[in-house]
Amino acid sequence: MAGRTVVSFLVLVIAALLVPTLTANPLVDSRPFLSNSETSLTLLYQNNFNLSDSASHVSAILLDPLPQSQAASACAALSETLISESTIRAHRADFLRQFSYLAYSGRSSSVQSYHINGGVVVTTGNFNNLAFKPNIARFSRLPVLCTQSTQVAFANATASASNQISVASQGNTFVGFRNKKSFRFQGIPYADTPKRWQYSALYSPRGQTIQATSYGPQCAQGGGGSEDCLSLNIQTPYIPKSGSRKNLKPVLFWIHGGGFTGGTGADPLSDGGDLASREDIVVVTINYRLSTLGFLAIPGTSIKGNYGIQDQITALEWTIKNIAQFGGDPKKITISGESAGAGSVRTLLGSPKAIGKFQGAIAMSSLGGGVTLGLSGDYGTTYSTYYSIPQSYAVAGQNIFQAAGCTQNTLDEQISCLETVPALDLIRLSSVARYVVQDGTYVNTAQLIVSKKNASTAHIPVIFGVARDDGASFSTYPKTPVTTEVEGIQAALGISASYAQSIIDSGLFPYYDTGNVTFDSFNVSQRVATDKTFRCIDQATVYAGSKSGAFQSAYYYQMERSYGGYDPNNLGGPPITPGYPNGNPNLPYFRLHGSDMPWLFGTLSTLRDANDLYSIQLTAGYFAEYVRSRQPNPKQSYLRARGYTTTLNAIERTGPWLPVKGAEGPIKLFDYPSYSSSFIDVPQCAFLNYSVSYYLEGGR
Ligand SMILES: *[C@@H]1O[C@H](CO)[C@@H](O)[C@H](O)[C@H]1NC(C)=O
Ligand SMILES: *[C@@H]1O[C@H](CO)[C@@H](O)[C@H](O)[C@H]1NC(C)=O
Ligand SMILES: *[C@@H]1O[C@H](CO)[C@@H](O)[C@H](O)[C@H]1NC(C)=O
Ligand SMILES: *[C@@H]1O[C@H](CO)[C@@H](O)[C@H](O)[C@H]1NC(C)=O
Ligand SMILES: *[C@@H]1O[C@H](CO)[C@@H](O)[C@H](O)[C@H]1NC(C)=O
Ligand SMILES: *[C@@H]1O[C@H](CO)[C@@H](O)[C@H](O)[C@H]1NC(C)=O
């Protein structure tokens, strides 16, 4: 890590002019790479989220104004050259849109000249044409357009001598790199190596050069990983000039899912490179401690649990302190996550240590339950109704000591024993801790309080929503065919015949007959599962929170189109039909848990039809606008400036996504285009003892 001297490109430029042999200067690395000490860097790429289309687009790097005499050397310091007229002409539509967005966002004039190879390019006021003027403006300081030659467009891009960039922040230097679409800093340690069952503390070394060019290890989990895992990743379209706070972009702070026992911020499905580039925001993805290492809580000791949650807050603190140097606005942070990541968002919305550290929150498929369901407890309950420390210990405490063979006489001895168990052995035991607990510090209520407006809940606008069939991932498709619906529901939900019968008798979950009893009763069951574990709690949360004023406002969605996801039953996607080699999304299929992530991040590589792409553009556009302005409807002027016509058309056709106002919602059904609806399955939720107004009635 040590020993690399970072030089600014301008120093290099001057050095190149004055010093004949660069390498003779011991302070100058023989392999120069760029820093932001003399200019901001903006990566221009007209990103349509069509991942197979990247070969037909080019990117460019925009630098701050310089006289022409210095422009070529400035690009050379990036291992690039001034962009040529022919490149711009060959990608004229892309450049026009990039220029129009620069003007829209106040970064240029509408009639603006840029230094390019051998002259300047000038925009016309209405961005329908470009003028090329060779050999003029030699002495004007104009923004500079360099080529961008790194061609790898995806999360698997790697750093090379020619694409690295260093950024200084808080006394350290971070070496990242760029791919075709954004600048990337991977594996930044945000905390010191955590001590087992102690809270994490912000990374403390100073004067370090941190090689942020490859992901840090994932936190210890079934598939491997490390106890020393507290790192984060940044994707950004923009790096301000060192020390400048100009043009900072809002930040999406992503907390991965995985049941509090798995997952990583390096998941390619949640890679922020495309979202950052298309929507001009900064994306941060984090790791946090998992399983027994992140969540063990033992009554009467200093081991109070919630280490994973506290790590998330440490990562937020790192982000607030450092993100401006990476182009992010520390006062515009939206926390977001899916599944256990959404459970984390829900927890942070009520955490006294987290409130104030973020301004927006997106909870995708947050789990809940917690009602007397005639069911033997609900898997989702503990994600939103928090155990006390003794309750957590009763479920995941003594049995962990047993499984580890730590059965000494005193608790102190048992804990000392458990502390010596290697991390991967510990998390692979038959019993693990994975519950958020009421520890009195990070979490001090049994549930997020949405029934009234008080200081226990972050008073901000929020987004909650579900995938239409989230519960299909949490129901069991019968191993052997069944012959009756009762039998099918029993098997899928693991409930008694009489309770299965009462579901049928309610008439609320009609049987949809395709002639396949096993399949059709599974379909009924997964609707019950979706309601009881996802839909009812999430609708109840936004209804109560907006009615009581606990939330400043609340938006709710349901994914009607999605791809892949968590599929333990091997249900697969829609059938293949002629013209649809990747499946025909117009035919029935389950919208599974986790299948929504590409609709936020634009990471779907297998498009089934054009509407997949357009719905991703539209949906990611809602989320990104919310990150920017705390409401999800992009301005028409923004969409026009960027040339995002499919999104513009959809919004013109079906209207804005409105906040929840009452028992009718409204909510938005995400597809292409999206449609407005009222809350879904309201009577079903009442039947399941989880009415839409559950939280207003004080819960149960
Ligand atoms: C990188 O990812 C892309 C998109 O998933 C894939 O097509 C490509 O083969 C990958 N490249 C490498 C070197 O793994
Ligand atoms: C709802 O709660 C009532 C009262 O506790 C109970 O009798 C009923 O079985 C519950 N309904 C369901 C669907 O679990
Ligand atoms: C908020 O209201 C809840 C429920 O009435 C109460 O327990 C809590 O103490 C209140 N919190 C604050 C910070 O006022
Ligand atoms: C019922 O549907 C399932 C899932 O598609 C399939 O595996 C099974 O073969 C079908 N059974 C019959 C009798 O068609
Ligand atoms: C499940 O049933 C609903 C009707 O309740 C139907 O619209 C949907 O297409 C079915 N899902 C599948 C995957 O067949
Ligand atoms: C995505 O890009 C590919 C390659 O350029 C193109 O063939 C395809 O039509 C595009 N898909 C859509 C929906 O625009």
UniProtKB/TrEMBL annotation:
<keyword id="KW-0732">Signal</keyword>
<dbReference type="Pfam" id="PF00135">
    <property type="entry name" value="COesterase"/>
</dbReference>
<dbReference type="InterPro" id="IPR000997">
    <property type="entry name" value="Cholinesterase"/>
</dbReference>
<keyword id="KW-0378">Hydrolase</keyword>
<feature type="signal peptide">
    <location>
        <begin position="1"/>
        <end position="24"/>
    </location>
</feature>
<dbReference type="InterPro" id="IPR019826">
    <property type="entry name" value="Carboxylesterase_B_AS"/>
</dbReference>
<feature type="domain" description="Carboxylesterase type B">
    <location>
        <begin position="181"/>
        <end position="636"/>
    </location>
</feature>
<comment type="similarity">
    <text>Belongs to the type-B carboxylesterase/lipase family.</text>
</comment>
<dbReference type="InterPro" id="IPR002018">
    <property type="entry name" value="CarbesteraseB"/>
</dbReference>
<protein>
    <recommendedName>
        <fullName>Carboxylic ester hydrolase</fullName>
        <ecNumber>3.1.1.-</ecNumber>
    </recommendedName>
</protein>
<dbReference type="GO" id="GO:0004104">
    <property type="term" value="F:cholinesterase activity"/>
</dbReference>
<dbReference type="InterPro" id="IPR029058">
    <property type="entry name" value="AB_hydrolase_fold"/>
</dbReference>
